C-alpha cells in the first residue's frame, strides 16, 4: 500500500494559492474476509478545506465514505461495508468531495481510478 507521504500530488497544482490538492493512488491493498482495513487516506495539510473520501468498487458499489476530514487529518483504519474476496479490482474509484471550512458548502470534487488488490 502506498503511504500518504508517497502519494502523487504533482498533477494537482500542489501548494498553489486557492488550489485544492487531491491525492492520487495507483494501487491500494486490503485484506480479504474482513471489514476493518488498514489504509492511509487523508486530506493533505496544505488544503484550506474539509474533505470527504468515498471508496467504490468498479461496478459502483460503495465500500466506504468518510466524514469530513480536516486538513492534515489521515485515516489509518476504516470499516468497509462488506468483506471482499481476494483478487484485483481494476478500475476501483476514490471519490473526493471538498467543503468550505466556514459554511460547510461543497466546493468541488474529484474522482480518481486505482487498482484495489485484496490479499488472502
Q: What order do the helices and strands come in, and which of them pair?
A:
Elements: E1 27-31, E2 36-42, E3 50-56, E4 62-65, E5 74-79, E6 87-99, E7 106-119
Parallel strand pairs: 1-7
Antiparallel strand pairs: 2-5, 3-4, 3-6, 6-7
Description:
The model is unreliable at 1-14 (pLDDT under 50). Strands 1-7-6-3-4 form a 5-stranded mixed sheet, with no helix packed on it. Helix content is 0%, strand content 47%. The chain has no helices and 7 strands. The chain is an all-beta fold and 120 residues long. It has one domain (4-119): Immunoglobulin-like (Sandwich), CATH 2.60.40.2550. It has strands at 27-31, 36-42, 50-56, 62-65, 74-79, 87-99, 106-119. Strand 3 (50-56) and strand 4 (62-65) form a beta hairpin.
Which properties best describe this structure?
single chain, 120 residues, mainly beta, Immunoglobulin-like, five-stranded mixed β-sheet, two-stranded antiparallel sheet, 7 strands, 0% helix, elongated, disordered N terminus
Distance linking N and C termini: 15 Å
Element-level helix/strand string = EEEEEEE
Radius of gyration: 14 Å
Mean pLDDT: 89
Task: Provide the number of structural domains.
Answer: 1
CATH architecture: Sandwich
Unreliable spans are 1-14
Helix content: under 10%
Strand content: over 45%
| Class from secondary-structure proportions | mainly beta
- Which fold name corresponds to the CATH topology? Immunoglobulin-like
CATH C-level category: Mainly Beta
Helical stretch count?
0
SS elements, strand count: 7
Largest sheet: 5 strands, mixed
Spatial arrangement of strands, main beta sheet: 1-7-6-3-4
Shape: elongated
Amino acid at each position: 500500500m502506498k503511504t500518504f507521504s508517497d502519494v502523487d500530488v504533482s498533477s494537482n497544482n500542489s501548494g498553489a494559492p486557492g488550489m485544492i490538492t487531491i491525492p492520487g493512488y495507483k494501487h491500494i491493498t486490503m485484506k480479504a474476509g474482513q471489514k476493518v482495513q488498514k489504509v492511509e487516506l487523508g486530506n493533505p495539510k496544505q488544503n484550506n478545506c474539509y474533505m470527504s473520501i468515498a471508496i467504490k468498487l468498479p461496478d459502483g458499489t460503495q465500500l466506504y465514505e468518510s466524514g469530513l476530514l480536516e486538513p492534515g487529518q489521515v485515516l489509518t483504519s476504516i470499516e468497509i461495508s462488506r468483506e471482499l474476496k481476494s483478487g484485483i479490482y481494476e478500475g476501483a474509484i476514490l471519490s473526493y468531495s471538498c467543503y468550505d471550512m466556514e459554511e460547510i458548502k461543497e466546493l468541488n470534487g474529484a474522482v480518481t481510478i486505482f487498482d484495489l488488490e485484496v490479499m488472502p
